[in-house]
Amino acid sequence: MSVSDGVVADLRTLIYANVKGVVDKPEEVFVNIIEGNHSLIVELETASSDVGYVVGRGGVIISSIRTILDAFGGRNSTNVSLDFISDKRGLNRSRGERGSAY
């Protein structure tokens, strides 16, 4: 059984809301969600100049985002993992979505 489309849409909105608030170039935030059985892998890509903002000092911001995703997954009975891609060649945009989820 896979995760419902509504859960994926909610997750995408949650990620955009949290990440776009900490970067200088929110238009360059890209999210790709890969679905599995009771699991979701989130691939997050930002402008290379925004990597430090997303990671934060000592990894505090990225750790907080992962904590939020863990809570989201627990609430929706699914495992959510985050892959932060800092290399522009890492995300296959033909599978992902661009721009805002709003």
Report on the architecture of this protein.
By secondary structure, the chain is α+β, with helices and mostly antiparallel strands. The chain has a single domain, classed as GMP Synthetase, Chain A, domain 3, CATH 3.30.300.20. 35% of the residues lie in helices and 21% in strands. It is built from 3 helices and 3 strands. The chain has helices at 5-19, 51-55, 60-75, and strands at 30-36, 39-45, 79-85. It has a 3-stranded mixed β-sheet with strand order 1-2-3, with helices on one face. The chain starts with a helix and ends in a 17-residue tail after the last strand.
Write the layout of secondary structure elements.
Layout: H1 5-19, E1 30-36, E2 39-45, H2 51-55, H3 60-75, E3 79-85
Parallel strand pairs: 2-3
Antiparallel strand pairs: 1-2
CATH H-level homologous superfamily name: K homology (KH) domain
Tally of domains = 1
The proportion of strand residues reads: 15-25%
Strands in their spatial order, largest beta sheet? 1-2-3
CATH C-level category: Alpha Beta
The radius of gyration over CA amounts to: 13 Å
| Category by helix and strand content | alpha+beta
Q: Give the distance, in angstroms, between the N- and C-terminal Cα atoms.
A: 28 Å
Using the 3D structure, state the CATH architecture. Answer: 2-Layer Sandwich
Q: Which fold name fills CATH's third level, the topology?
A: GMP Synthetase, Chain A, domain 3
Q: What's the SSE pattern?
A: HEEHHE
Overall outline? globular
Mean pLDDT: 85
Fraction of residues in helices? 25-40%
Query: Biggest β-sheet, characterized?
Result: 3 strands, mixed
The strand count comes to 3
